[in-house]
Design brief:
It is built from two helices and ten strands. The chain has helices spanning 32-38, 139-146; strands at 5-8, 15-18, 27-29, 43-49, 53-56, 59-65, 71-77, 83-88, 94-98, 112-114. It starts with a strand and ends with a helix. The structure holds zinc ion (ZN) (2 copies). Residues 29, 31, 33-34, 43, 115 line the site of one zinc ion. The site of one zinc ion has 9 residues, from loops. It holds the Pfam family GFA.
């Protein structure tokens, strides 16, 4: 997870570089919004500073108003629609990269699993990995679960 990380979309039209900087550890989110947005069982996120991310290629954005009223924006490749990162208007300066778009994600196992209350029943989480029924409720709690090592 150290150093410059690179990644991109499925078709290659979008490429990005993530400079070293403040990086949270990856986590899995099993909320129903992530399930629907990804069409999968959970999504794998890593919190970063948006300013550390340099993207080349045309992006499309989709927005969604969360129950809290926060506007979540997700950006992906305009051609192949691979989703690259998301941002939230309540967390200025931060973004959440979609870990599966990294060129090398094999060491990006989730440091925590959130929203296990809506986890699909066929997924078994290793016993030594922290879980929450919902998600961290404060910045301090976010750092406690998935803050930088
Ligand atoms: Zn693409
Ligand atoms: Zn989620």
């Amino acid at each position: 997870m150290e150093g410059v990380l690179t990644g991109g979309c499925l078709c290659g039209a979008v490429r990005y570089e993530l400079k070293p900087g403040f990086r949270m550890r990856p986590y899995a989110c099993h909320c129903t919004d992530c399930q629907r947005r990804t069409g999968s069982a959970f999504s794998l996120h890593m919190g970063i500073m948006a300013k550390d991310l340099t993207i080349e290629g045309e992006l499309n954005e989709g927005t969604f108003v969360q129950p809290s009223g926060a506007i979540s924006t997700i950006a992906g490749c305009a051609k192949c629609m691979s989703r690259i990162y998301a941002a939230n208007d309540r967390r200025a300066g931060l973004a959440s990269i979609r870990v599966g778009t990294l060129d090398d994600a094999k060491n990006m196992s989730p440091a925590a699993h959130f929203w296990v209350s809506s986890k699909q029943p066929w997924i078994t989480i290793p016993e030594d990995i922290p879980t929450l029924e919902t998600q961290p409720q404060s910045s301090q709690e976010w750092l406690q679960y998935v803050g930088p090592e």
